[in-house]
Amino acid sequence: MDVKAIRQQFPILDQEVNGHPLVYLDSSATSQKPLQVIEAVDAYYRQDNSNVHRGVHTLGTRATDKYEGAREKVRRFINAKSTAEVIFTRGTTTSINTVAYSYARANLKAGDEIVITPMEHHSNIIPWQQAAKATGATLKYIPLQDNGTFTLDDVRETITGNTKIVAVTHVSNVLGTVNPIKEVAQIAHQNGAVIVIDGAQGAPHMKIDVKEMDCDFYAFSGHKMCGPTGIGVLYGKKELLEDMEPVEFGGEMIDFVNLYDSTWKELPWKFEGGTPIIAGAIGLGAAIDFLNDVGLENITAHEQRLADYALENLRKIDGISIYGPEKRAALVTFNLDDVHPHDTATVLDAEGVAVRAGHHCAQPLMKWLDVVATARASFYLYNTEEDIDRLVDGLLKTKEYFGDVF
Ligand SMILES: Cc1ncc(COP(=O)(O)O)c(C=O)c1O
């Protein structure tokens, strides 16, 4: 993989921040966008802008073809059976909420269980808390090991015949843990439950095969995988989606509207009420083309090298605490003893190094780690070992600056 050539595709990386060349280590929050994506969105607005599925005019046909073409690209990207299983949403949060509103509220009753883990992002906790409150179901947690993984024995112990929904993140945005989705899906299915995967940190970084994983729902966001903000995907098995009610009602999603009742379009459009996110979907399609050109296997391997290199070098810093397992996705969450992570991130920013500091939308996990917040460096296909060297140098400067606390 030619990282230098890849970097040239990302104009934003070619700038100085606070007098230093920018090192962007916050791709887990949102990734940068390659020219291919920027130009695809630009070309749509310049040449094809029109509403979809409506007019018979030429622009309308072009916009519809591009929008539906993007859906087919997503289908291939995740190996779904049919485009009926690919719903465009605003992102992971909306995708999970769609399942929690539509599937959970219709299928749960008092005494049923929803099983999740303490490593979930708020977007994969709160929708289930709310669904549990609305239906009388109980929320249960698969316990974590000290290194931030869970065992399949604990999964078997937690999921029971009363469990109706299991919702697990593919990759933890804090710990970097990569969860054994296929195995958890098997256990969920043996108990008659459906499994919902939060793929926000999975889809951008590794080959996704929803058929092979046998997940019932898979949610992800375009903006974390080189695409625009405001677009995401809910994959769902057709037989489940067919039985589900839409959560948004209005234009585009209807078949017939009478004075007192209405009928819905077929899948996937019954879940896409209102004018859809046309430019976003087209941009996501371009992002998928870009990722496919580089090769997901190459991206995963490159990120693995970066994660190993980062772990090896960060560990040499006295007073650093690193959270999460040895074998992990391309991110490292850490704290420097007694330095607040916001201070760490501020010193790093002064050095031109962008990292995230805070609770990472995972407050239950912060509690489990017994910290109020952490700093996080996350890597993507455009990052290099030199970026990590700059991070390490910045952290040594942070230590120097807050010297007396060590
Ligand atoms: C694991 C995980 N789940 C869900 C989300 C929410 O994604 P979005 O804000 O794009 O809906 C994120 C975003 O950081 C995430 O990291």
TrEMBL record:
Keywords, in A-Z order: Lyase, Pyridoxal phosphate, Transferase
Enzyme class: transferase
Pfam families: Aminotran_5
Domain Aminotransferase class V stretches: 23-391
Transmembrane segments: none
E.C. code: 2.8.1.7
This protein's record includes keyword Transferase: yes
GO molecular function, one term: cysteine desulfurase activity
Cofactor: pyridoxal 5'-phosphate
Catalytic activity: (sulfur carrier)-H + L-cysteine = (sulfur carrier)-SH + L-alanine
Function in brief: Catalyzes the removal of elemental sulfur and selenium atoms from L-cysteine, L-cystine, L-selenocysteine, and L-selenocystine to produce L-alanine.
Family: Belongs to the class-V pyridoxal-phosphate-dependent aminotransferase family. Csd subfamily.
Name of protein: Cysteine desulfurase
Organism per entry: Virgibacillus litoralis
